[in-house]
Amino acid sequence: MVDSISRITSALDSARVLTLEAAAVVSSKLGETSYTNYSQGITPEQLRTLLNSRNSREIKDGMRRIVDIMSSSDEVIDIESYFADVVKNIISDDVKIKILVCIYLLRFAEKHPNLALLSINSLQKTLSDGDPDVRALSIKALSDIRIPSLYPIVLHTLKKSVTDSSAIVRNEVSFALLKLYVSKNEDMEDDIIQILQELLADADPMVISSAILVMKECFPNRHDWLHGHYRYYCKMITVLDPWAASYLIDLLLVYCKTYLPRPIVVDASETSDTQKSMELPERCNEIQFPVYDVINDVDLTLFLNSLEKLTSTSHPAIILAASNAFFQLATPMQFKKSRFPEVLIRVCALSSNVGVLNILYQSILLYSSVDSTLFLPYVKKFFILPSNDVAIACLKLKIISTLVNESNVRTIVEELKYYVSSAPHPDIAITAANALATCAELSSGWESNIMKWFIFHMENSKLSTTLLSSYINVIRVLAQENPKRHLAHIMKLSGILEHRNTLADSARAALVWLFGELASIERRICPDILRKLIPTFAFEGPETRSHILLLAAKLVSYSAVDFDGPSSESPSDLKNSRIYEMYKAVSYLAEFDEDFDIRDRARSLSSLFDSDKFEIAALLLQAPKPTPRMDTSYLPSDKNGISYQTNISSLEIDKAIQNYHRFIPWNNGIGSTDEDIRNPTTLKDYTRFKKSFSSETYMKNDPSRSASSIPDSPIVSQSSVTMPQQKKNYRLQSLDEFFMDVPSVTTRKSGRKIVIQESSDEGDSEDDSDDSDYSGDSEDEEGSDDSDDSNDSNDSNDSNDGESLENSDMTKGSYKGKDNNDMNNSTGTSGTSDNTVEETENIHSSIG
Amino acid sequence: MFISFYIADTKNALIFQYLLSSSSPLFSHLLTKIQNVCPELISEHHDEERDESIMGQDSLKYTSSIHSSLGKDLEVYKYHSVTNNINYFCLTSLSKGQASIEPLLFLENMDRILLEYFEKERLTVSKLINNHDRLSMIFYMCVDSGEPAVGRLHENMIKRMVPMRSDLSKIINSTAHSFQKAVRQPALQNQRLFEHSATKGSLLFEQGSGSSTNDAFENEVVPWRTGNLKYKDNEIYVDVLETMHLVYSQRQKKRRRSYRGKNETGAEIKMVCGSICGQINFRSHISENPTIELDLNLAGNYLGVPSLHESVETSSEPGKPVDKLRFIPPDGKFCLMEYNIDLDMLQARNAVYKSGSIGMVSVDFQDGLGSKHDEFEIIINISNSTKVTDIKDLRIDVEVTPEVMPRNNTTDERSNKNKNQEVDDPNPDFSEHKIKVLRNTHGRFENDVVPGKGTWIFQKDTAVGALPVLRGCVENVWNSAIYVKVKRVSVSYNYAGELASGIQVNAINITSGVRNLKSLKLFKGVKYTTASGDFVIRG
């Protein structure tokens, strides 16, 4: 007994060890890294075997290796040599293998057109698959193969698929159109336009999204196509894909400018009798009324209102597009009311993408430079945070300088001074110094305050050359505008020049130059400065020496004017004057300079003065120099007829962003027609077939969001052919009744339905011919193949979606809840063969 | 139009490339081109390296680290993902009149999609390399004909087309794991555990990514949620993260007059600007199509115009505070809401932050202490809280500068002497100096390579209610009277349990969309985290 127990125990023990090992092996096998190691060990021969295997697991391993090589810099195996081995796996039932083959095709099909055609047949077959995802994938793969002879087939496919019941397939059709258009085959353009217009008229947001993308890429100027969709799109804009929404806003903006009357701004400060009104000016800061009302077209209001619903989006592209729309279409008051300025601030605060921030801040700078009130409440949001990128910090400073006014100048100046004195990067300090100069323009009090501070700062801290020269620039601007007032500060500068021997050569040179320039305005102090400079001439740096020489020459030239002037004394008097003597001394020193440039300059100047050519000297030395432009010197109040573009260019905003915000002119030639061109067109709504428990409960809960409920809005329902009515009719009517109700369906539409039948035929006939190759893999497949004949309607039932008109006489209840495969299809039509089949067969035979 | 995508690490070694046609360049080719045309794009520290000669040319230079033109009609964009520490590159042909925001946004978007797809906090290089096939498929799904695949960029659609690493492996893994555990147990328990692991396996089966049948798409109620999901354990997790960006300044005049201790009232510290950035992340695994209502207690904060996930119903009145969110959540993790509390607005500050301190840590410092005026002291005040146990990763960066004694602080005689000195030698050479710690109560102090900078590093956890103090001086090697000035103190820390703004989640409820709502077992969890972003006190 004891013995048996111990035996059992030992058996259990060994079993335990075995299990432990097995578990360890299993878990290690499943690790990703170990798989990668295994995968990378596959030899070229093994790879070929794997790809040709019948086991889908092995094929998958092979494909993974192929894709792995494609997406790494690994060039051990030339994967292009496996083209045929890879492409034949397109028939695989495994979606993953299929996608991987498609990725391979996308990359290499162009290089091996003949071999790529191998895959066409099986791709076409899956175009009528039951799963919409598979259908969409087939369209995508087919259109990705860039072989010109294939384009007609793709186009034909698209014509059929554009009426597919599944939105995902119709969405894919748009992308295929884009690919066809890019191929630049002009014969197909008409067809592309026709299909695109059908997609634009779709009711599903997913399809509209992709159609808008195609329109933006291929036909950005055909805004007339939007007439019938304008109001529907305005309603739908919140449910569109964010990318598409931003494109749509751009398109609608141009549309509004072209087809809607220009808004009228009415002066609200006057009484109603004497009210003045004007058209919305090009730049929103040109409105002259302090208080005003705006009269918009109804459709413009609709657009702007729908934009306001987008404020809660997190997608910066939408926010940028919407801000631009308000910037161009509305008054600053409306812009503010839309809360987009606040939204821009929020995105800037939350985003960490430097590139995006850069664009957003540049846009803010542009808006703010046109109307500073937009961002005035958020001025502190533009204070620099330590983690800000240099570029961002500089943009923030430029924005601040557009926002300075009497009430906030104190805080701003204090903050800017801090940046100038302790910025981590010289660019920031320079921009901040320039911004300070803008603050100084506000009032003379601030001007002298800032000037004083700059000079104090220069005296007390060590500064790099670039910084110093930017300071001197600022000081020069400030001094040049009103030199009399700043005389005291300028005197201080001379003190710096006198005492700070350690100052860098270039900085001293700049100061000397500054006095030379000041000589034209205030000459009295200059000779004294020159006098003090002469004794130390030899110890100065080369730049300073050169500028001392210039200063001396300038002084001579200015005093020559005096001597030439009213008293008209002879030049000899001048030559005896103190100034000329000082010049002589400097030029004598300069003639022995070690720098040949200075020597040369001294001689040329001397020859001018010696031959009494003071006019020429005056021309050379007294040429008026423009006031250095501050980066931020653009002020919105500038009304000297300088065009907007040049003003903006001083802000150094990227070209792309400037172009994006470029003002689109209003179309003044809109004739008032009685006909409403924006009368909604019929929507092609396929969702009406959709009926599932969840969706119904959802729609009940939330009518605001479902696509089908949107056309209930007053504007769309004005039209005679509204969708919801159609929906009701459609469900209850029999097929015959439906056809009696002709006006609601265009004849073209029914024509298209015939195409669907053809598509099913085509798929079927191919299925029939190729069935034996692959359909044995799964029972289910076979089942569906058996019930064949009208697979297409079968497909649509799979997806609980009706597609062809024939289906409509079945009430929903009759097929809901039934299994896909045991559907009885009474509507099958035995089709006649059509062109595509012939074409594909041709290709088939050509491949051999 | 996109031509190709690349993912590279920060040393520009290729991790992954996705080329949209046979003519797209390989990464190695692109890299050579970039090195010739625009080396700033791939240099790691473009800011430091930039010399003064190219400064002030034009504004385009600022974008050179993220975008560059490689030739006619060819642009390259770079996005650096901070969370994953990898770079994304994409090559595009010139877009028509669009602001170039699109490629940058798209790369950012792809980064997020990958994170959400792999359900990770951060992606490692090896994870990406191991999943080349998946990455290729994701890119294949997200990019179509060189454009973003609009309408199909939802996470659930990507997951449907690119199924997660088959759930079977997870089951086997976990079963193998429980086998191991079971076998290690005493033999008697074997059987029971065997059963347990078996049930666990089947449970995992059910937990898989919902129904994978064809009608998943057609049952879809909203585009971001796959229809008819089934979970055995229903869970909702809400993570609220707030980051504070605060800049304070201490007024100079007052400080110099004040004596130690006076500053502790905090009266002299003035906020220059401040904001709190908040983010509500939502993670859920719930069966069917629930409508969830999240009730927030805003604690009097004004959130401005927060950004909401597309699933959230927007309120009809634009000005209304956003305190109730109703939405049908996507499966898995997503960012429900992001908000920005503007602390500069008077109304905001009066309402909530009367006490003056935001966050749990406040800092005071004094300089010019000691008999020689060369000492400084930093006092940290960590307030008490019942919800927070400790402050994590507290670090204080200090920057001090020695200055020549200011004139007004000295006698006339001294000042005259100083003035004379200034002519000859206005500043002694301060390029080399070190901070010396005289006394500190917590943590350790490290000097930076940059003179005058140092970091006071605390233990991983610091208990609330503590009052750490650091007193230090600058090693005086100049033998002249100097005054040590604290230029800047920046603080970084984080803690869990409470938000800086005081916002709280009142309730999370499923209001509809689930059958048997009553019997539904639901786990809900809320986590609050506060972190400091830019938190600086200027001297």
Automatic annotation (TrEMBL), chain A:
* Ranges for domain Clathrin/coatomer adaptor adaptin-like N-terminal: 43-612
- Disordered: annotated span: 697-725, 746-848
Keywords in UniProt for this one? Membrane, Protein transport, Transport
Biased composition annotated in UniProt, kind: Acidic residues: 759-792
* SUPFAM superfamilies according to UniProt: ARM repeat
User: Pfam families given for it?
Assistant: Adaptin_N
Under InterPro entries, the record lists:
AP_beta, ARM-like, ARM-type_fold, Clathrin/coatomer_adapt-like_N
* Compartments it resides in: Endomembrane system
Query: What's in the GO CC field?
Result: endomembrane system; membrane coat
Any one GO biological process: intracellular protein transport
Primary localization class, coarse? membrane
Ranges of Low complexity compositional bias? 822-835
Which family, according to UniProt? Belongs to the adaptor complexes large subunit family.
Tell me the protein's name: Clathrin/coatomer adaptor adaptin-like N-terminal domain-containing protein
**What is the protein's species of origin?**
Zygotorulaspora mrakii
Automatic annotation (TrEMBL), chain B:
GO process terms (BP): intracellular protein transport; vesicle-mediated transport
Keywords of this protein's UniProt record, alphabetized? Cytoplasmic vesicle, Membrane, Protein transport, Transport
Sequence ranges assigned to domain MHD in this UniProt record: 233-538
Q: Where in the cell is it found?
A: Cytoplasmic vesicle membrane
* Regions of compositional bias (Basic and acidic residues) in chain numbering: 410-422
Extract one GO cellular component term from the record: clathrin adaptor complex
- For region Disordered, the annotated ranges are 403-431
Query: What InterPro entries has UniProt attached to this entry?
Result: Adaptor_comp_med_subunit, AP2_Mu_C_sf, Clathrin_mu_CS, MHD
Q: Which Pfam families match?
A: Adap_comp_sub
Q: Does the keyword Protein transport apply?
A: yes
Q: What is this protein called?
A: MHD domain-containing protein
Gene source species: Zygotorulaspora mrakii (Zygosaccharomyces mrakii)
Q: What is the lineage of its organism?
A: Eukaryota, Fungi, Dikarya, Ascomycota, Saccharomycotina
